[in-house]
What does this fold into?
Amino acid sequence: MIAAISLMRRQEQVDLARFRRHWLDIHGPLVCAFAGLHRYVQCHVIESPVMNDLARRMRIDGFPILYFANDEDRAKAHGSPEMAACNVDSRLFIGAVSRVITDVEQVVPPAEERGRISLLLLFPEGTDADTIDGTIARAARLPRLRGLTRYRVREQGRAPASTVGHLAVAVAAVAQARFDSIVDLEGALAAWDDPGVAQFVVEEHRLA
It folds into this structure.
């Protein structure tokens, strides 16, 4: 499985409520029309004491994750009229974006029934492999965990054919730890202190 993850910052003049509604109600259906798309999830960043200073400095408002079964399916979306429509719409509410192409590894398989709250960990570019492995192993032992996904970075850079500004945030790896509720997540992370990894709390919206 391949996941295309975008790091997305809203336009300065677009407030958070308007950004979220546009992303869900207008932009989301455009993405759902992509050929070859296996699954599409919007991860909306929500306020939480778990979010650390490194994450706040990145000023990321959301992470769309597009899943494809293989490279051939992912290529079907590139250059398509559907992607062109998304690129036009992006200019209405997105200020800057960066795309990360990853291979998906299920470290802890997701539970059949789970909530929509996740901890999204971004490891900055230059983080060594031992640190990444150790942090993910630690995350796998968190109480009340309902699934843990590791995204192994293949490539990253500007979104294809996008005219939106580039968000210059480079990552070495991404991980997503799922919980049933914000209470479970914040309780599990009460003793977690890792200033070298950006910690985002997100609400997932599964659109496709």
